[in-house]
């Protein structure tokens, strides 16, 4: 198993150092701009980087965000300092064909792994805010406890970091940090799936458009039954190339 520290170092050496100018451009516009395109090729032939990115994308992308924060300091960026709570999108593109699936292929074995899928945009919801960091008031000591929200299901604090009580906690909606988010649906001949988009991908696509997604399939649970719905969390999304260059 590749350690988190090793992953952070791989992000720095394989991805961020060769793209120092792009990272600088991101930092200059941060926090308005929060996304960086990462061609999968940058993993090179390093199996100890590409395998965790495909099989454990949550942990590997988290290491990438930590590495970006470290690299920003290395660049001596005074503005655009990235805090671990900041949401940054590492938009991995061009994942290998081994993880390309049709929508109907996707099943439980793909949950929380990286996949590439294609489909036609079938529906587009109105964009809205989604909580990136939620603030909770500890009912015991009344201090505010913030909890990073990596997914769409609200995470609550385990223990209060001020008084160590394990709750109860009250959500303080006006202390939340939000990002732009949108749900769309994509379909192929056999299946339609919901796709969660955030930040620069919001409002980027319209109904009827063919798109290619690098995504993480998630099981959406309603909290009542044990039956979930499969949906996709977009890592990157691009209009499909309608006139692909023929292979030489
Ligand atoms: Zn407390």
TrEMBL record:
Enzyme Commission number(s) of this protein: 3.6.4.12
Keyword annotations: ATP-binding, DNA replication, DNA-binding, Helicase, Hydrolase, Nucleotide-binding
InterPro entries recorded: MCM, MCM_OB, NA-bd_OB-fold
SUPFAM superfamilies reported in the protein's UniProt record: Nucleic acid-binding proteins (SSF50249)
Gene Ontology terms for molecular function: ATP binding; hydrolase activity; single-stranded DNA binding; single-stranded DNA helicase activity
One annotated Gene Ontology cellular component of this protein: MCM complex
Gene Ontology BP terms: DNA replication
Pfam families: MCM_OB
Every MCM OB domain range: 104-218
Highest taxon above the source species: Archaea
Family: Belongs to the MCM family.
Name by which UniProt lists this protein: DNA helicase
Record organism: Natronosalvus rutilus
């Amino acid at each position: 198993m590749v350690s988190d520290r090793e992953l952070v170092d791989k992000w720095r050496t394989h991805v961020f150092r060769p793209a120092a100018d792009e990272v600088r451009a991101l930092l200059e516009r941060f926090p308005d701009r929060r996304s960086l395109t990462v061609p999968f090729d940058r993993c090179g032939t390093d199996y100890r980087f590409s395998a965790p990115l495909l099989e454990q994308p949550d942990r590997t992308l988290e290491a990438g965000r930590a590495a970006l924060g470290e690299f920003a300091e290395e660049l001596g960026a005074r503005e655009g300092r990235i805090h671990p709570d900041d949401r940054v999108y590492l938009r991995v593109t061009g994942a290998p064909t081994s993880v390309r699936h049709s929508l109907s292929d996707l099943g439980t074995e793909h949950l929380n792994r990286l996949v590439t899928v294609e489909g036609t945009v079938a529906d587009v919801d109105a964009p809205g805010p989604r909580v990136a960091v939620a603030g909770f008031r500890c009912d015991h000591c009344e201090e505010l406890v913030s909890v990073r929200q990596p997914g769409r299901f609200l995470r609550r604090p385990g223990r209060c970091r001020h008084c160590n009580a394990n709750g109860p906690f009250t959500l303080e909606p006006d202390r939340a940090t939000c990002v732009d988010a949108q749900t769309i649906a994509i379909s192929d001949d056999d299946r339609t799936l919901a796709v969660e988009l955030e930040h620069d991908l919001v409002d980027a696509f319209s109904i009827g458009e063919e798109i290619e997604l690098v995504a993480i399939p998630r099981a959406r649970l309603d909290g009542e039954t044990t039956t979930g719905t499969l949906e996709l969390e977009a890592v990157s999304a691009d209009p499909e190339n309608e006139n692909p260059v023929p292979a030489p």
